[in-house]
Specification:
GO terms for molecular function: 2',3'-cyclic-nucleotide 3'-phosphodiesterase activity. By secondary structure, the protein is of the alpha+beta class. The chain has one domain: Cyclic phosphodiesterase (Cyclic Phosphodiesterase, Chain: A), CATH 3.90.1140.10. Helices cover 36% and strands 22% of the residues. The strands form three sheets. The chain has a five-stranded antiparallel β-sheet with strand order 1-11-10-2-3.
Length: 269
């Protein structure tokens, strides 16, 4: 589960606000991974400005709590717990990752993407990840600061950091079990109201995508994947034929240029 650079090539595009993200990727020995990688490359060439290259993935959540001064333990713990959680979640007879229509938003990271069908397994998993590794650590730290202000000071950059704990200093514990119960509903609301699972095809600042470019996109997807009218809502009913089970979970540090993103660790599921 060591660090590795993503195999991507891109101009200097800065990213912010993603922190450490959890990706779900198809395994490389699956045909769907090759198909997605190829069609992403074909679509990349029709957008101006040499958009960055990246591997096919679905973002489960962002801003997971990882100590970047010593990330190994956190990375191994998170990946192990995530893999165990997936084994326990209920599965249906259909693949729990099914791709739908191609669509676009104004957002850079959602410029062109496949929608992901609303399978309960994926949403339950995302909810668990958001609760345990995003909301709970942030709330626990905030509560600890409130209960133990004497244990914190500001560093030279103005950031609030913990002092070294001495024998004389008394520390008030935080009831993480109570916090987790309180945050369960917040994570559930996030999964229903905010989570938008998708598989990005192109990152770009281009807006809007004009009629001519959409025509080219449809032709590229039809020619290579055989999906006619790839932006039709009908593909969100049963899927467009691209699907997979399990895959590879990756923790990715998404800071700086896209070509500087680093895979901190991964595990097959």
């Amino acid at each position: 589960m060591g660090k590795s650079k993503l195999n991507i090539h891109t101009p200097h595009i800065l990213t912010a606000g993603l922190g450490v993200a959890l990706w779900l990727c198809p395994k490389k020995n699956l045909g769907v991974q090759d198909k997605l990688q190829t069609v992403m490359g074909l679509l990349n060439t029709v957008f101006p400005g040499l958009p960055p290259r990246f591997e096919p993935h679905i973002t489960v959540s962002t801003n997971l709590a990882v100590d970047m001064k010593n990330p190994k333990d956190d990375v191994n713990r998170i990946l192990s717990l995530c893999a165990a959680a997936l084994l326990l979640l209920p599965k249906s007879d259909t693949p729990w990752i099914r791709l739908g229509k191609v669509t676009s938003q104004r957002k850079y990271f959602q410029k062109l993407y496949f929608q992901v069908l609303a399978e309960p397994t994926l949403y339950l998993f995302a909810r668990i990840v958001q609760e345990l590794f995003v909301l709970l650590p942030a709330k626990t730290e905030a509560e600890h600061q409130q209960k133990n202000p004497h244990l914190y000071h500001k560093d030279h950059s103005g950031n609030l950091v913990r002092r070294k704990l001495t024998k004389e200093a008394k520390e008030v514990d935080v009831d993480t079990g109570k916090l987790q119960r309180e945050l369960a509903s917040e994570a559930a609301a996030w999964a229903v109201g905010e989570y938008n699972p998708h598989l990005s095809l192109v990152y770009s600042d281009l807006h809007p995508i004009d009629t001519a470019l959409w025509h080219t996109i449809r032709l590229r997807v039809l020619d290579y994947l055989g999906i006619d009218g790839c932006d039709s809502d009908s593909w969100n009913v049963l899927g467009n034929g691209l699907s997979w089970e399990g895959g590879v979970l990756k923790l990715v540090l998404c800071e700086g240029d896209v070509n500087e993103w680093v895979v901190l660790g991964s595990v097959d599921v």
